[in-house]
Amino acid sequence: MSAPVEAPAAPADDLSAFVERDExxxxxxxxxxxxxxxxxxxxxIEKAMRAEPGVVDARVNLTARRLRLSWRDGAADPxxxxxxxxxxxxxxxxxxxxxxxxxxxxxxAALLRAVAVAGFAAGNVMLLSVAVWAGGSxxxxxxTRALMHWISALIALPTIAYAGLPFFRSAAxxxxxxxxxxxxxxxxxxxxxxxxxxxELLAERPDVYFDAALMLLFFLLVGRYLDLxxxxxxxxxAENLAALAAQPATVLRPDGTRxxxxxxxxxxxxxxxxxxxxxxxxxxxxxxxxxxxxxxxxTGEAVPEAAMPGDRVHAGTVNAGDPVTLAATAAGDGTLxxxxxxxxxxxxxxxxxxxxxxxxxARLYAPVVHALALLAFAGWWGFGGxxxxxxxxxxxxxLIITCPCALGLAVPAVQVVACNRLLRNGVLVKAGDALExxxxxxxxxxxxxxxxxxxRPEIVGRDxxxxxxxxxxxxxxxxxxxxxxxxxxxxAGPAPVREDVREEAAMGLAAGSGANEVRLGNRxxxxxxxxxxxxxxGPELWLRRPGxxxxxxxxxxRLRPDAAALVQWLKRQGFGxxxxxxxxxxxxxxxxxxxxxxxxxxxxxPADKLARxxxxxxxxxxxxxxxxxxxxxxxxxxxxxxxSPAAGADLxxxxxxxxxxxxxxxxxxxxxxxxxxxxxLVFENFALAAxxxxxxxxxxxxxxVTPLIAAAAMSASSVAVTVNALRLGRAGRSPFA
Amino acid sequence: xxxxxILIPAALLLGLVGLAAFLWALKSGQFxxxxxxxxRILIDEEESNRDD
Lengths: 737, 52
Description:
Oligomer: heterodimer
Order of helices and strands of chain B: HH
Number of strands of chain A: 27
Radius of gyration of chain B: 19 Å
Shape of chain B: rod-shaped
Strand order of the largest sheet of chain A: 15-27-26-25-16-23-24
Distance between the termini of chain B: 52 Å
């Protein structure tokens, strides 16, 4: 247990591919650091790195969980820097910024620039337009009005060409794929408006709509940016997978020397050394050494299991005991870890078929609007006997009035308010359409360990234990980091630790010698035979001391305090509730019974959970998966919506749509309630936008809409939709009410 | 109305200055780490002399 943890620093050769060199002699390296959470982490990392000789700068990006290191080339060894980060407790993985998620961030920055430009242009053109409108009633000279319009055109046309690009591109893409999306009516309206306004201007006539076109563009870009922000919060599965897969393996050569090898390059049959506390890099059989394996990443099980020579261990689990040597059976793509990741990726593809509400609205909306504008134009020109120019203007007025400005804001505005409200309550929504999908859920699939429970063992029946037994056990347990020993310590409170404690891997602890020896460990260690009537029904520890019968400590994973309240609330709301756990049957049954869940399954493997999920979805159910372990990851990725606690495995959090902090499950209820309220508000917003159209379209078709009315109506509807969305921000009642 | 020939360019210029300032801030990375910026004010920098 006390074996020094070797820093698994990759050899310098491995890192050189990631090091960038500037002309001025500095080299820099970008690292993914997953464990950065707060100001303390930033300060620790940056201070320590800047103190290293040769390091010029170290800058943590908390949002992206990244670190950028710069040093004078040759003055520092990147491998040593990563090694010392590791010793600080922040394992870091190098990446090249070009390869990772560059596209997403570039999109975001480009959109923000477009928002800024459109905002500037809309503001200034509106300033000029207000002057024109005011001048219309107080006798502005013709030449002054023309000047105002010309300046407007000079500002508006380049702006539309630049800031309208996101919409034009997306509309063209949709057309190429023979689909219709919301960007098509937007692009058509903006382009036609600009073209007609320019024609009017050249003909020295007053009907110029540059202000309306720019306002439209600005509001829509704001909506688009908010939408992208809510989606941009997530880091891709691949990025975090890199952190797990990049663990180098220590391979023992036949001549006894050691060699660092990337995990995926280890050949089956190679002998791999795993130090105490290290994550196991490959699947393999133990050749020598006895240890305990923390499988919590794979199964969610908190209590490490003993592993003997001959046992199979899997990549991604942690060697929580003594150093062992493995014979590799699979590495890289062949490991259980990668199989889970592949399952998750396959399952995720099923979900991407979801069509967002706004796009569904657009499918209906675009053809109707365009037909209407065309009808208005054809009607006035063919049957109404208007000149071509007047009929065209009426058609344009219909296009502008019906342009889905309010619709473009209807969904993102609500989503941003909903996500912010959840964030204030410690619930992070990672996927933009997660709330929409969550609102449609009618069945909830729950994981047990770590989700309904805390995922750490607690002593059962403390009152029945004698105080002296407990403090004696604690005096031994203090020497070990095993979860059961920690649990004893938590229960017993602070106690002096004996100095002569010895640890026998996978067996237990002992102190004293000869006849005075005290032992704490499993039943074999304490000499308890299996036939004494107390069959093991969960994790347990025995305490043996001279002259007394062995004392048994039983442990169980405690339910989160509001687990029962959540299940009751879900049932009251009419959700189907099922419990799926990788844990053993007795433990799952007792949990299910105490919570009142009828449908449960124990010892479910990742593929079993996914199969049940598929069966439910085939039956037309919309499933919410709540889970925390790597074994839940495929289901989290495949479910209609998924929630994971922040204490869960990193990969599970990546796969989940929503991550909640803290111990309370009421966050799940809060997320569901907020999602449903958000959906109601989105529909209200659609209704508002529709009502506005019903009022304004007849006016436009009848030919009574002037540029002033168009601009005012559009702003009014956008503001109405935004204000309606803000209603969600008000604090609600208790989530279980 | 001659006043307009000064006022309109002046208004546009001020707007452009604001726009340029924003685009500069965007380009210099001030919007890259919004979460980090809010946490960094909590870091004590008493032994740091970078700002002196």
